[in-house]
Amino acid sequence: MERRRFLQIAGGGVGAAGAGTAALSLWPKAQEGPRESRKVSTFCELCFWKCGVLATVEGGEVVKLEGHPAHPLAMGRLCPRGNGGTGLLYDPDRLQKPLIRTGQRGEDRFKEASWDEALGYVAERMQRVKAQHGPEAMALFTHGHGGSFFTQLVKAFGSPNVAAPSYAQCRGPREVGFQLTFGTGIGSPENTDIANTRFLVLIGSHLGENMHNTQVQEFAECIRRGAKICVVDPRYSVAASKANWYLPIKPGTDIALLLAWMNVILTEELWNKEYVAKHGTGLEELKAAVKENTPEWAAGITEIPVETIRTVAREMAAAKPAVLVHPGRHVTWYGDDAQRSRAIAMLNGLMGSWGSKGGFFLPGGVEVPKYPGLPALPKPARGAIDGAGTRYPLADETLASGLCDATMAGAPYQAKGWIVYGTNLLQSLPNPKQTMKALQSLDLLVVVDVLPVEIAGYADVVLPECTYLERYDDLYAGTFKTPFLALRQPVVRPMYDSKPGWWMARELALRLGLGDYFPWQNVEQYLDGRLKAMNTSLTAMKQAGVAVYPAEEGLLPENHKFDTASGKIEFYSKTLAEMGVDAVPRHYAKPEPPEGHFRLLFGRSPLHTFGRTTNNRVLGSVVRENEVWISNKVAGELGVRPNQRVRLVNQDGAVSAPVRARVTNRIRPDCVYMVHGFGHTSKKLRFTAGRGASDSELVTRVDVDPLMGGTGMQNNFVRVEKEA
Ligand SMILES: Nc1nc2c(c(=O)[nH]1)N[C@H]1C(S)=C(S)[C@@H](COP(=O)(O)OP(=O)(O)OC[C@H]3O[C@@H](n4cnc5c(=O)[nH]c(N)nc54)[C@H](O)[C@@H]3O)O[C@H]1N2
Ligand SMILES: Nc1nc2c(c(=O)[nH]1)N[C@H]1C(S)=C(S)[C@@H](COP(=O)(O)OP(=O)(O)OC[C@H]3O[C@@H](n4cnc5c(=O)[nH]c(N)nc54)[C@H](O)[C@@H]3O)O[C@H]1N2
Ligand code: SF4
Ligand SMILES: [Mo]
Fold this sequence. Notes:
Elements lengths: L19 H4 L13 E7 L8 E7 L2 E7 L12 H4 L2 H4 L9 E3 L8 E3 L2 H19 L4 E5 L5 H10 L4 E2 L1 H18 L16 E5 L9 H12 L3 E5 L12 E3 L6 H14 L5 H7 E2 L1 H7 L5 H8 L3 H13 L4 E3 L11 H15 L48 H10 L7 E5 L3 H4 L3 H9 L3 E6 L11 E4 L11 E3 L5 E3 L14 H11 L11 H10 L5 H7 L1 E3 L20 E2 L3 H5 L19 E6 L13 H4 L6 E5 H7 L6 E6 L8 E6 L6 E5 L27 E2 L6 E2 L4 E6 L2
Parallel strand pairs: 6-7, 6-13, 8-9, 8-12, 9-10, 11-19, 13-14, 14-15, 20-24, 21-23
Antiparallel strand pairs: 1-2, 2-3, 4-5, 4-15, 16-17, 17-18, 20-27, 22-23, 22-27, 25-26
Helix pairs in contact: 4-17, 5-17, 6-13, 8-11, 8-12, 8-13, 11-12, 14-16
């Protein structure tokens, strides 16, 4: 029981935010006495996991959000952030009306406009970009479920340049590492069978702080069932406190550890022989490649004792195939991340965990036909400018950072217009000063958001979207253990003069002569059209919120053909060999922090999603600012006291805002750590502006993964300056 306490995810509307949330109500109750009460099903957008929600509405006010009992990702519960969604809905700082810029770009001065004026302006400027530079010169950055209609718009316009920061700044390297090995990426939600695993290895994945609901619930479940857990992290994370083995690894050396584990497993003949013989190829080459990578070799690099490395490898192998070396999600760390992810994939392959219970299930899914009569999208005359598939040969999604770089360079061709939907690029792309330069080179910047975040301050036009609790979005067909189809629908009417994304995209399409790509009058008609093809209807889905399809076993069939070049699990990659790069991952030393400097690491707060929740009064009242974790030893040497304010100064002279020191023995002395998403500078975010510091501003050095363009952001070094 003790071990489970931290993982408590709310079953009845109260999260780790605790009993506090009710008392934190920041908006007036409409009236006294009994009020009409109803429950509406929808799904969450406080992060990208998309858990099913049941919202209670009383007298037109959303009073409670809880987990949808039938939704496979929620299982009746939401994480604390999901429970706090009303803090976004009733955020007094929300964008309320369309805005057109009046000051210089970046001055954050606007006049209010009508929708007709704002959309007319955007359409006119888009046509001008097209006339002068071609339709490909319009780019879309989009993150979040609501962006799909803007994707349709920009593709219909004729541009291939559509990107999300969730690839090159997040999970891209993992997808490539697993594709090279198993022929399939991991995707979202991850196809990890955490609940049934007997041995879980977490390499930096800080479950419990990383609050993806289903994973955290399954983590608690595997602990309850007695799974063994090994956590590898330079910081003693919440997950580490549940581990049988905690390995405080020297940052940047995980590939050495993974190679040493494979070395032990191969020399002691502990791999899953039957499985590998049936499904694998390249085992002999792997054996030869890792021959020298003994635990003794790795101990000197990773600073993990030889015996620990060996013991964990043996214990892991004893649990095979119900072993899960978790692939992680935010893996853009050092620039060799696709290779580290591949090493993780290979270790899983040796254990036989792909397609095994307690390992990775083969995800099932439902196919939702397109809306009937939708015309095919035009083929863009020119390819995308981001470098995916060209400069970065293995990237299979568009690179947000690549779009930004190409915009600045004006090559391979000019991008002159950006639409930015639901992503605050000034926090999510590395090196915000560079991003600002790219913004200044544009002829048109449109920002579609719910809050006046930093990037909105640079826009020519700001389009205020209503929140996920006030709108329909496209359907969500989830691939999980139990495949499902979920509906987002308005719980209450949009506040202010905000509008849903589908409406904005369609209105723009009509003004651009692209109405054929939106051949429906309203989103209800669109959704009903798609749902009819699934033998259900909008009326039925509004009632149920989610349709659940029969669970699939997800186990590997006898003669499974993997989607790799060889049709097998590749322990040696000919694809990589032909590219002239390591066919088996190798360890390369990373740059070391200069004297007096520490490696800057970052992660998540269980109460926040990046910078998108820090202005949320419900969540922000519980965790209001971030802290910088500094080891006792270092703090002692520098004379930094607990809670003292410090500034971080990086190797290029970038200086952070003042941030409180958390002096702790839970972190190695060679690094410091902070939660991403604080340090907002937009004064219009009245609750969070000026609170805490932004890691993004300290990420001026980026090590780009040569295989796929992921932006490794953890080779930045900071010194600690005390505030007076
Ligand atoms: N509450 C909450 N949950 C979230 C999110 C959120 O914003 N808030 N965001 C979601 C998203 S989009 C993502 S991508 C995930 C990200 O979450 P994860 O996939 O878990 O990944 P990271 O954020 O990179 O992991 C940070 C951890 O890695 C450790 N670490 C740093 N460097 C190293 C290293 O060199 N080696 C090892 N072994 N460990 C290292 C850090 O100390 C920290 O504990 O979280 C998701 N879940
Ligand atoms: N330095 C640094 N950079 C990082 C990371 C890090 O840890 N450190 N993490 C990386 C990772 S893992 C990821 S996934 C990315 C995430 O990067 P982003 O997706 O850009 O995350 P946020 O910065 O939170 O920006 C989300 C934006 O969406 C807006 N928004 C919220 N709800 C809605 C809505 O319903 N409609 C619209 N239109 N807008 C909405 C919010 O107000 C906010 O402006 O960042 C990456 N970049
Ligand atoms: S994990 Fe939490 S924030 Fe993310 S969708 Fe689920 S409930 Fe919402
Ligand atoms: Mo992410």
